[in-house]
Protein: Glycoside hydrolase family 31 TIM barrel domain-containing protein
Organism: Micrurus corallinus
Amino acid sequence: AITREVVKNMTTALFPLDVQWNDLDYMDAKRDFTFNKDGFRDMPDMVNDFHHDGRRYVMIVDPGISSASPPGSYRPYDEGLKRGVFILNATGQPLIGRVWPGPTAFPDFTNPETHLWWYDMVKDFHDKV
């Protein structure tokens, strides 16, 4: 991944580097809680290597959840629907807007269940990387 190359170059140049971050390039189709298996196929190993070297890794995560994937193929959206965590429109359906991944649903963080769902999604992704 290009991120490894950046860290290598910074280290070679003796540039102080204790944290590396990524914007949404690491994501698969710009969807939260996924990683791009082409450009970031070794992401779990990369993160472990950073930690081993005393570095931290920070990635962008925003609360816009893609609603464009086929049912059953994107757990954050499927589980969010099942648990009723999204802001609803006047017809009682998830309010859909457009953000980086395209059609997007927005979690209602005033709903206590949303906090539990968000925790579960973050934990599952953290366990993978």
The chain has one domain: 1-127. The radius of gyration is 17 Å.
